[in-house]
Amino acid sequence: xxxxxxxxxxxxxxxxxxxxxxxxxxxxxxxxxxxxxxxxxxxxxxxxxxxxxxxxxxxxxxxxxxxxxxxxxxxxxxxxxxxxxxxxxxxxxxxxxxxxxxxxxxxxxxxxxxxxxxxxxxxxxxxxxxxxxxxxxxxxxxxxxxxxxxxxxxxxxxxxxxxxxxxxxxxxxxxxxxxxxxxxxxxxxxxxxxxxx
Amino acid sequence: xxxxxxxxxxxxxxxxxxxxxxxxxxxxxxxxxxxxxxxxxxxxxxxxxxxxxxxxxxxxxxxxxxxxxxxxxxxxxxxxxxxxxxxxxxxxxxxxxxxxxxxxxxxxxxxxxxxxxxxxxxxxxxxxxxxxxxxxxxxxxxxxxxxxxxxxxxxxxxxxxxxxxxxxxxxxxxxxxxxxxxxxxxxxxxxxxxxxx
Lengths: 197, 197
Hints:
2 copies of one chain form a homodimer.
Chain A: H1 5-15, H2 22-34, H3 37-53, E1 55-56, E2 63-64, H4 70-73, E3 78-85, H5 88-96, E4 101-105, H6 112-115, H7 123-131, E5 137-140, H8 146-159, E6 165-168, H9 184-192
Parallel strand pairs in A: 3-4, 3-5, 5-6
Antiparallel strand pairs in A: 1-2
């Protein structure tokens, strides 16, 4: 089947995006052709600008257009606690949840199972940061996967000798969840972590 | 919650696209930040180019970067049959299905129920095209909705006095469908349209 070349090109570019299949790419492309040219240019500019201006913060690894990022330079945030996350999207989630400390973003999913090593994770820089600042606690907020757990333990072992408190996000029932449908591992963790009310 | 401004801008632009909610927009934006700058520029360029170069064909209304479009100028296609569709995406679907005639794209969903009129549909131009060419049959391929049916009947009434054969796409069971789960209207149409084997 033949399509106008610029349309074909646009569909193939959109298909490269995650979660966008051929059908959605076609629907998006046809939608874009119906938009005002100024709106399409606005979207194109936003794409290029974000990619050009946004960098990982040289201190914490969070995505930012100023270096160091606003979280690192915010004197009203609690500098005694540092939360280690895998990705910048985790920072967004924790900010929404009201966390007020600092961050350290690994900026890659740990792949111990695949590569047999965690050396690519920039954990040295984390420890250097920690030693030269007033950090008292590291909250390990890597994902509750095997790789995330291994990374958390690895960091914990390196950080404890330095005299830091090292904690891990609690496992348990998701709020609004249903005990009947909770997997047994989560339920066991929820039992183990039960708290006095 | 605060995000780097170019990232916030990109998320809000992506959210304007159909079928992209806040979560998907965030996921897409973070994906884009991980791409090579050249790839992001390629996507941005494809957006702007498609919007700038693609126009409805002045003859048939199909989306094209050359006017008249390649379907209108292709002498190997059957010029005696013209298929009326609502949108350019319907052309893509019919091309995939192997249709070899010409098209007429209304380029808008008919909204008789909403506006009480079908006057905005450029049907005059369709009839002018038809009269000055060798068209013998009009295939009405508007959607099987109430608006689509009304539009089909409206066009049929205008085209029949000109001496044209006017047909409508068959209703019936979708291939691979299940009789048990077919709605009763479709099943009734399939019965009415049953064919000798």
